Amino acid sequence: MSNEDYMHQALILAKQAFTADEVPVGCIIVNPSSGEIISSAYNLSQHGGDATAHAEILAIQSACRKLNQNRLRDLDMYVTLEPCTMCAAAISFARIRCLFFGAYDAKGGGVVNGIRFYEQPTCHHRPQVTGGILEQECSALLKDFFKTKRNL
After folding, report:
1. How far apart are CA 112 and CA 108, in angstroms?
2. pLDDT at site 150
């Protein structure tokens, strides 16, 4: 599967989050050698009552449980929105090999925008980062979600 195919899978999850009235962010963790999707998640902060229940955190936790290990070396992450600083740190600690994201987040991003976590000297592991995969689709879903919130 291509990067776009994997991002489509993450977008399906983001749409499920939208339907559940959660910020529509979806995430999958993939074994690039086999193509297997190891874990998948979408944001659950609102309904889970947990500020840390971002899609990336939940996908990392699920993958670690499934593989019975605390490091996810040689695995890739696809997420529909540029990770925040909290998630960027978790990705680093999990040793994710490559991070692929869809929409850039000028306000809350922590990878390309904001603190740029992976550029800090205290960052121990820096995944390869590629942003802008299906950016328009990922961005449109988020804009639609927040537009419905403003119209309430």
Report:
1. 10
2. 77
